[in-house]
Amino acid sequence: MPAIMKLLIPLLCLCSILASLNAATTSVTVGGKNYTVTYESLAYDGNESQFNNTDMPWWGNSSKAESFAQATSVNSVHYGYEHFTGFGLSALYYYRSDGNGGSTASSTATSNNRNYAVSAVAVPAPLPILGILPVVGFLKRMRKRQRT
Fold it and tell me: Residue 57 CB: number of other CB atoms within 10 A?
């Protein structure tokens, strides 16, 4: 039993730390995959590396941006997918979620603050109950070996 407590206490501490962080997140399902999307209020600074990264699967793909926006249950999360500069303008194209399964395509000046989605992390599927049983058996065998 003490081994379980050694594992349980750090896990509970980690959960409390994660719960206390001030990150705005929402869960979405796109293409059969579950994602945790993090969003924050910021202005796009015109630097492509600010949004163009592997944590944003919708960047550079307007249809994916629309899919994420439609799957978001929070109103006014902006999924920026393209930066435009030309004719003296600097704008960011995005899809904005309406919180009810719809979205609106639009653009804004890069200097405007919006609730931009900045990352999407795929959430692994939960282990089925039968998948946990071999792990429990393995842990019991390990405890027996430690006792002898």
Answer: 20
